[in-house]
Specification:
heterodimer, A: alpha/beta, Aconitase, domain 3, five-stranded parallel sheet, B: 164 residues, alpha/beta, 8 helices
Chain lengths: 442, 164
């Protein structure tokens, strides 16, 4: 009631982010708010959204500077229909004067918008893509919405949201060699199920986070989409600020300092007394390499329980695990080895590809016999560039293994960390990377 | 008293994801024409559905219906088929939003989801917030007022058209 009451409200990071995006002092779980996001994301679905937008009386997008559009889901276009879709998006971008437009080959929306400093600490994004919780690794709010909602946002700048309850996941200890945050998320989703955080926010906390690299943090928040979460977030720390500083100097040489200042002013942190609807604690030292088995992300087994399952091909890429650290892990496994099974590697962005070339990783992958693809989503959702044949078994660093996901209903997809994918392609079967790097391959 | 309306059930299980409701390989090539969307509805889950479903049919499912991709065609393909509602033990959040924003009725009712099978006839009574089947009555919660306005308008686009 009174203003002083509102001031005293202790809030989670997500509650603070949503309070800001709805121009309020505080919000409570369960409330319906009208949010005005800083960024509205769409990708290859932009032309379809524009068709919906055309049904509205507004001829012009209300805040064109808030839109961010990447071409990433089927790039370069594998058919004339896909090419026409891209052509229509370019028309829309021109007509509406959208400056944050990223052409084919620049990379996957979630990776590119972080690299370009379009999303950063304290900002909020709504996106026509289910992996939008990704942006929480920067201390931002990101949630996926549908196409009609994006059309409504283009027209009005606003959208209704229900304030989620927050689940806190406290991380302690350190990951063992060969184990990544991908294993941590698969393990957590296996325990809590694919709806374990349905309608909820997930906030990662604990002193274990300080040791996690930027690339591995992004995998953490990204995968929470597979636990049903609305968004996931990590409060910014020195690791976050260093990454933003280094990256923006490369991508925005003209205004990186201004952008960094804006993020520093906007950064939000959870209150010590905030209320969490659920609490989980994970000692990262206890995690071993984990695998999601066909055809559900929450059908989880330790790698050790299904080792020796034969695989026809591997895929390393996507918004979940297609960053430099992931490609470096694959290169470390493949150094001096030859593949028994096919391996497709698709960097998450052109910046990642450039760095992977400079570091020599791409050379190592090519020498081992891997195929390198244009930065983008690749075969993740069965569009192109590595779809499966009937009966094939794929080991993938992506985020979903649903029936038909990679284009063929009668195929099997296992999900794992990138080193496990690379090692399994050397052995022709699921295997722990240590067995390859130590030379004890079968 | 308003009587409910009668609907034939198609029953599915838990964790049905959007990739089997509307396969991703069609998302950038199949047009948004209702007939084209309807042809692929539930293609990788029950290939008979698209051919045999009739307007007014309802889908009844277990937990977490519509998890996975945000693709709206997983809702609009069912609207195109003429499905009256999806009734589930629970919904994935983006699917739930997409349904509301495209005028597809979504009802959370775990007890009814347990009780019925494919081919059963159920009654939906939107005035009483009740579902009826074989002499049993199942109530379901009303939506928040802000959200109900959007559903009543037939989705967020018709809702915005009405406002201007």
């Amino acid at each position: 009631m009174g203003k002083s009451n509102e001031d005293m409200e202790m809030q989670t990071l997500t509650e603070k982010l949503l309070a800001r995006s709805s121009k309020r002092k505080s919000v409570r779980p369960g409330e319906i708010i009208i949010s005005e996001p800083d960024v509205i994301l769409s990708h290859d679905n932009t032309a379809a959204i524009a068709e919906i937008f055309a049904q509205l009386p507004q001829a012009k997008v209300k805040h064109p500077e808030r839109l961010a559009i990447t071409l990433d889901h089927a790039v370069p276009p594998p058919s004339a229909k896909h090419a026409l879709n891209h052509a229509r998006i370019r028309d829309f971008v021109r007509e509406q004067g959208i400056s944050n437009f990223f052409e084919i080959g620049r990379g996957i929306c979630h990776q590119v918008l972080c690299e370009e400093g379009i999303v950063g600490p304290g900002l909020s994004l709504l996106g026509a893509d289910s992996h939008s919780p990704h942006f929480g690794w920067l201390g931002a709010f990101g949630a996926g919405i549908g196409r009609s909602e994006v059309a409504a946002l283009w027209a009005t700048g606003q959208l209704w949201l229900r304030v989620p309850e927050t689940m806190r996941v406290t991380l302690t200890g350190r990951l063992n060699p060969g184990v990544t945050t991908k294993d941590l998320t698969i393990n957590l989703i296996g325990e809590l199920s694919s709806e374990g955080a349905a309608y909820m926010a997930v906030e990662f906390a604990g002193d274990g986070i300080a040791d996690l690299s930027p690339d591995s943090r992004a995998a953490l928040t990204n995968m929470m989409a597979e636990m049903g979460a609305k968004n996931a977030c990590i409060a910014p720390d020195e690791v976050t600020w260093n990454w933003i500083d280094n990256t923006l100097k490369r991508t925005r040489p003209a205004d990186w300092a201004e952008r960094l200042d804006r993020f520093r002013e906007h950064a939000l942190y959870p209150d010590a007394g905030a209320v969490y609807a659920a609490e989980h604690r994970i000692n990262m030292h206890d995690i071993e390499p984990m695998v999601s088995c066909p055809h559900a992300v929450d059908k989880v087994l330790p790698l050790s329980a299904i080792a020796a399952t034969a695989v026809d091909l591997g895929f390393i890429g996507t918004c979940t695990n297609g960053r430099l650290e992931d490609i470096a892990a694959a290169a470390a496994v493949l150094e001096g080895k030859q593949l028994k099974s096919r391996l497709i590697v698709i960097p998450a962005s052109s910046l990642v590809l450039r760095d992977a070339v400079d570091a020599g990783y791409i050379g190592t992958l090519l020498e081992a016999g891997a195929t390198i693809g244009t930065p983008g989503c690749g075969p993740c959702m069965g569009n192109h560039m590595g779809v499966l044949a009937p009966g094939e078994v794929c080991i993938s660093s992506a985020n979903r293994n649903f029936r038909g996901r990679m284009g063929e209903a009668d195929a099997e997809i296992y999900l794992a960390n990138p080193a496990v994918v690379a090692a399994s392609c050397v052995a022709g079967q699921l295997i722990h990377p240590a067995e390859i790097t130590s030379g004890r391959q079968p | 008293m308003m009587a409910g309306t009668a609907h034939r059930v198609w029953k599915f299980g838990d964790n049905v994801n959007t990739d089997v409701i509307f396969p991703g390989k069609y998302t950038y090539t199949v047009s948004l024409e209702p007939a084209a969307l309807a042809r692929h509805a539930l293609e990788d889950l029950d290939p008979r559905f698209a051919g045999a479903a009739r307007p007014g049919d309802v889908i009844v499912a277990g937990r977490n219906w519509g998890n996975g991709s945000s693709r709206e065609q997983a809702v609009t393909c069912l609207v195109a088929v003429g499905a009256r509602a999806v009734i589930a033990a629970s919904f994935a959040r983006i699917y739930y939003r997409n349904a509301i924003n495209n005028g597809l009725l979504v009802i959370e009712c775990p007890a009814l989801a347990e009780a019925v099978s494919t081919g059963d006839m159920i009654e939906i009574d939107m005035d009483a917030y009740e579902l009826r089947f074989a002499g049993q009555v199942f109530s379901f919660p009303a939506l928040p007022a802000e959200v109900r306005e959007i559903v009543e308008a037939g989705g967020i686009i018709p809702y915005l058209q009405l406002q201007t």
